[in-house]
DMT family protein (Flavisolibacter ginsenosidimutans), 121 residues
Amino acid sequence: MKGVYTVGLLIVSNVFMTLAWYGHLKFKDWGWLTKAGLFLIILISWGLAFFEYCFQVPANKIGFKENGGPFSLFQLKVIQEVVTLTIFVLFARVFFSGEHLTYNHGIAALLLVGAVWFAFR
């Protein structure tokens, strides 16, 4: 069950992270943030990153083997990277319709599946 909680918290964490890192690229489309300066954008992104950490830190604490969780440190990192890229692809497809996936991206995804297999082997 700790593994499910860990992955769930990492998913929520990565939604906030993706919004913090890439959401500001769409601010120009939102009227009230059109003229936002870089400093304000950084503060908004920093605020979103706070919530990322509110979910990411407990995810790693709950999931880490030495704290009674099911995952090694390396397994946690691989899970986090796969979750990050999955959330990013969904985000890009929804908010940035001009971005297209190519076969290279598909190959990269298969290599990530291989990374997961090797990390859990």
Q: What stands out?
A: The first helix runs from residue 2 to 22. Residues 2-119 form one domain. The mean pLDDT is 89.
